[in-house]
Amino acid sequence: MTDRLMIQAPAKINLSLDITGKRPDGYHTLRSIFQTVGLYDTLSLRKTEPDAPMQLSCQDPEVPCDARNLIWKAAAALLGENPRGISVHLEKRIPSQAGLGGGSSDCAAALRGIRELFSLSVSDAELHEIAARLGADVPFFLCGGTVLCEGIGEILTPLPALPEYSLVIAKGHEGVSTPEGYRRLDCLAEQPAPATDRVLQALHSDAETLFSACGNAFDAVTELAEVRLIRNVMRRYGIHPVLSGSGAAVFGGCRDAEQANLIAEALRKEEIPFAAACKTV
Questions:
Q1: What pTM, to 2 d.p., does this model score?
Q2: Residue 11: which of 45, 44, 34 has the closest Cα?
Q3: 1 pLDDT exceeds 70?
Q4: Which of 19, 55, 149, 275 could form a disulfide with 264 if both were Cys (CB 3.0 to 4.6 A apart)?
Q5: Mean pLDDT of the chain
Q6: Is the alpha carbon torsion for 270, 273, 277, 280 positive or negative?
Q7: Domains, the chain, with CATH or none
Q8: What digits encode the pLDDT tens for the residues 163-189?
Q9: How far is CA 202 from CA 5, 170, 229, 240, in A?
Q10: Comparing C-alpha atoms, which of 207, 216, 214 is closest to residue 257?
Q11: Does 279 qualify as catalytic in the annotation?
């Protein structure tokens, strides 16, 4: 039995994101294909004295290290309202307000890690229920891979795993307000054409066919200057830019790692603060 654990929490992209309706409670329903990618936060978990209050730290000063953080909420769900006996350090590499799911992934990693660290008798089904209460995207990160997400994100249908494809992902300084994005979509006279069925048909085609089929309803209402710049650079190199989640990160599928690195470098030269080459995982 170990008293220390290190877990990687992957980012995700949305190969498609269609808004399918709005419930009476105000939540929007969606249909989306989620895909984990090789861009990671790292959680280092350590047991401390049983009565010692939980400690949470992060190298990024912008990340709250208290009960507002989803890692803290995960600990409270498994260890009690005032969690004790654990220290967690988060090494943050996935940008925030990007639509890459970093906070949700950190939460799922914390749920898995705490269960293992304390040998808790919590079944996978129970962990899934806890994850769904903590956030719509959290259940996805318990499994990862290639998954069709429906409802408000809680209905998950695993799909055959993608081959390892090369990507470039970029995000500017500005973030996107998800509620504002939904408000703008609600104001459109006509909703953007859905992409999910098109992506499902192209899932196991070659990379160019797949990534050309990708689409996101939020692309129609996201016009930040940095997002426009990222799109223009990607198009200049012949790849199809797609927003992830509600933004503001943009990804594009590449023919190989060399092209992905070349485009990431071109984006950095345009002073885009986050530009990374990675792969689907």
A1: 0.95
A2: 34
A3: no
A4: 275
A5: 95
A6: negative
A7: 4-158 (3.30.230.10), 166-279 (3.30.70.890)
A8: 999 999 999 999 888 888 889 998 998
A9: 38, 24, 28, 15
A10: 207
A11: no
Catalytic residue among 18, 137, 171, 219: 137
Q: pLDDT tens digits for 106-162?
A: 999 999 999 999 999 999 999 999 999 999 899 999 999 999 999 988 899 999 999
Burial label, 95 (beta-carbon count in 10 A; 0-12, 13-18, 19+): buried
d(CA 125, CA 135): 16
Q: How far is CA 197 from CA 47, 153, 214, 280, in A?
A: 46, 17, 10, 20
* Catalytic member of 12, 41, 73, 106: 12
Would residue 12 show up in a list of annotated catalytic residues for this protein?
yes
What is each CA distance from 91 to 36, 53, 56, 96, 147, in whole angstroms? 18, 21, 11, 13, 26
